[in-house]
């Protein structure tokens, strides 16, 4: 496995209730992933700021929160950039979502990742100002740590099988 | 009223918002509302927290203008603890602040608001974005934007610790002195940034100012309001982003007031409406007269155009040239045309870069005495800066241990909210006639608010593929008749 060319970004906002889940998972998984040769960044950043982090890798895995309202709290949704391009490009209110940034990297020849996946954790409340997670999400952190770790390994393995 | 059009979410602004337009029987727009459906409550969240946490907490309101909140909060802490930072600390803060203003304005010019003009207000939606800008002005411009913003942000990181949420502001100064290496880097980055700002101004002149159709749009009544203007000025009434007195001019350009931030209560009041969470700030003594402009209405305007309208001049030479050029070409001061906000923003980019050069070349910048340790008992503290989107005031009241009992944040978009509502309403009424509604027209209505670069502190996580613009037509009974969606 060419682990040196994989970057895992854990994203979130530390004071927007469940939006910090990515940051918490990052803290818990950083060493473990780094020991396997992954580059890991825990960031409170979005959009265009991600360009500098994503450049030059074969694979990028982004762990963040999501609220669809369609799945139980803690569900992990997996998206691939090419699957979502048509439905997500230009849809961020800032016009600067993750996939917008990757598209921009392609247009500007800024060496985007060959593949990008988003592991999105379904949460209850990513909008209200609070440093605490919702109780239901807090209760399943150990489960999420294991599950997200496993998913990252799976995604990497599948990517490098090709 | 016959029909209702909803634009939700409106696009290319910082945060979420919604526009609802009502049409009469003939299909003419009779009323448009600009709604902010979000409620955050950061002021409540601050209560019970140590005041020194405020620069870190408030900078997380949004990932776009954290440095503005960080700096306003830090200045409020200076005031709270009654401590005057050493001049080197003020200069370093101002250097960081100007770097932030420049990169934030660049974001708006090239990605948020600029595409409306650079690509064209009626261009297909798929082209009215950064990619369309690149297509129009060249790949190297896109690379230049990314590179300049990166260099500015790296500089902020080198000085302020973190770029998204700076950590260097402390009551009485900053956390660490500047090294000579960083100062030299700052000079280099500032010079390149000036080149970039002047290049941006040239693009604006070539593409926008030389196009009569665009000029007519800027000057059109649909985008014009005669309101009061408010901004920070230095002791010579020149624009300053970091510090100074708050100056207000009336719709004729006469000075209405000039005051210290501690007096803001005497001049600014809040009005609320039941259909939105945003508080509409207005001039207390003039009064709230509804959503109307003119000398008798307390509606005011902040942000780049307002700053230039209240300033007598610019403090740096190239920005002064551009300042004179704008007012000469517009033929009057103040300029009341909302879309001239884009022009003013680019002039401010030039000023920010020139001010960075001045500050970075100051030999005092590497003085190691960057902080005065506070010794006084805290009580009340207020800080003010010019955020990219306009005047930002932080006001904290604490107990004797520095625990916040009350916080009040007056943000730029609140100052502008009434004028934005006015702009959206007027643009809709002027542009939607006889049911003639297409996407280009709706974009031109959105342009009315986009010029202000409003920030509603968004936290969207939706990648469900939902459309970013949809029009809902209702009859009087509220029954949905038709839905028009934008192309994928």
Task: Walk me through the structure.
The complex is a heterodimer of chains A (162) and B (488). With 162 residues, chain A is an alpha/beta fold. Chain A has a single domain, classed as 3-Layer(aba) Sandwich (Rossmann fold), CATH 3.40.50. Chain A has helices at 21-35, 51-54, 81-88, 98-107, 135-138, 141-161; strands at 6-11, 39-43, 59-66, 76-80, 115-122. Chain A has a five-stranded mixed beta sheet. In chain A, α1 (21-35) links the parallel β1 and β2. The longest helix of chain A has 21 residues, at 141-161. The N and C termini of chain A lie close together (11 Å). In chain B, α11 packs across α13 and α14 packs antiparallel against α15. The longest helix of chain B is centred in the middle third of the chain and has 30 residues, at 180-209. The radius of gyration of chain B is 22 Å and the shape is globular. Residues 11-15, 457-477 and 484-488 of chain B have low confidence and may be disordered. Chain B starts with a strand and ends with a strand. With 488 residues, chain B is α+β, with helices and mostly antiparallel strands. Chain B has a four-stranded mixed beta sheet. Chain B has a three-stranded antiparallel beta sheet with strand order 1-2-3, with helices on one face. In chain B, strands 12-13-14 form a three-stranded antiparallel beta sheet. In chain B, a hairpin with a 2-residue loop joins β12 (380-387) and β13. At the A-B interface, β3, α3 and α4 of A face α1, α4, α6 and α7 of B.
């Amino acid at each position: 496995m060419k682990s040196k060319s994989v970057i895992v970004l854990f994203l979130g906002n530390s004071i927007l209730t469940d939006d910090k889940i990515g940051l918490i998972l990052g803290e818990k998984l950083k060493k473990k992933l780094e020991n396997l040769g992954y580059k890991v960044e825990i960031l409170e950043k979005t959009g265009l700021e991600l360009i500098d982090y994503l450049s030059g890798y074969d694979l990028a895995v982004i762990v963040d929160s999501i609220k669809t309202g369609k799945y139980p709290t803690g569900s992990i949704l997996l998206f691939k950039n090419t699957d979502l391009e048509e439905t997500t490009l230009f849809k961020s209110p800032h016009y600067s979502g993750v996939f917008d940034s990757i598209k921009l990297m392609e247009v500007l020849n800024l060496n985007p990742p060959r593949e990008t996946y988003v592991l999105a954790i379904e949460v209850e409340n990513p909008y209200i100002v609070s440093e605490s997670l919702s109780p239901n999400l807090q209760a399943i952190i150990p489960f999420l740590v294991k599950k997200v770790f496993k998913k990252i390994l799976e995604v990497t393995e599948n990517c490098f099988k090709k | 009223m016959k029909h209702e059009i909803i634009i939700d979410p409106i696009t290319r602004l910082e945060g979420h918002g919604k526009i609802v337009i009502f049409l009469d029987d003939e299909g003419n727009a009779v009323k448009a509302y600009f709604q902010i459906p979000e409620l955050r409550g950061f002021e409540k969240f601050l209560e019970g927290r140590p005041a020194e946490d405020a620069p870190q907490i408030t900078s997380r309101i949004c990932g776009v203008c954290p440095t503005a909140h960080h700096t306003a909060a830090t200045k409020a802490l200076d005031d709270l603890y009654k401590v005057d930072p050493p001049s080197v600390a003020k200069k370093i803060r101002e250097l960081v602040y100007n770097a932030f203003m420049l990169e934030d304005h660049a974001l708006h010019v090239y990605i948020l608001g600029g595409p409306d003009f650079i690509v064209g207000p009626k261009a297909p939606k798929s082209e009215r974005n950064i990619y369309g800008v690149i297509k129009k002005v060249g790949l190297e411009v896109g690379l230049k934007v990314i590179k300049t913003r990166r260099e500015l942000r790296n500089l902020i990181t080198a000085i302020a610790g973190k770029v998204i949420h700076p950590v260097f502001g402390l009551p009485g100064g900053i956390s660490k002195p500047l090294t000579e290496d960083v100062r030299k880097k700052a000079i280099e980055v500032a010079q390149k940034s000036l080149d970039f700002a002047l290049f941006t101004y040239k693009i604006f002149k070539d593409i926008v100012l030389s196009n009569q159709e665009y000029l007519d749009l800027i000057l059109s009544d649909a985008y014009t309001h005669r309101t009061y203007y408010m901004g920070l000025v230095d002791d010579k009434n020149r624009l300053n982003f970091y510090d100074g007195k708050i100056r207000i001019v009336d719709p004729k350009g006469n000075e209405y007031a000039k005051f210290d931030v501690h007096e803001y209560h005497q001049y600014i009041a809040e009005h609320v409406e039941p259909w939105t969470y945003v508080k509409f700030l207005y001039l207390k003594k003039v009064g709230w007269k509804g959503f109307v402009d003119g000398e008798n209405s307390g509606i005011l305007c902040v942000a780049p155009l307002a700053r230039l309208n209240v300033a007598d001049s610019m403090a740096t030479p190239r920005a002064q040239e551009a300042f004179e050029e704008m007012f000469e070409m517009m033929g009057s001061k103040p300029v009341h045309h909302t879309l001239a906000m884009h022009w003013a923003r680019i002039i401010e980019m030039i000023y920010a870069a020139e001010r960075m050069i001045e500050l970075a070349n100051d030999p005092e910048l590497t003085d190691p005495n960057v902080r005065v340790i506070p010794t006084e008992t805290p009580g009340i503290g207020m800080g003010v800066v010019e955020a990219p989107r306009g005047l930002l005031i932080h006001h904290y009241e604490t107990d004797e241990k520095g625990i916040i009992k009350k916080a009040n944040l007056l943000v730029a978009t609140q100052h502008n909210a009434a004028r934005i509502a006015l702009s959206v309403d007027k643009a809709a009424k002027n542009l939607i006639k006889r049911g003639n509604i297409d996407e280009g027209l709706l974009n031109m209505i959105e342009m009315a608010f986009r010029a202000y670069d409003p920030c509603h502190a968004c936290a969207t996580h939706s990648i469900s593929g939902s459309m970013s613009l949809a029009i809902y037509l209702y009859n009087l009974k509220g029954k949905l008749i038709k839905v028009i969606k934008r192309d994928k």
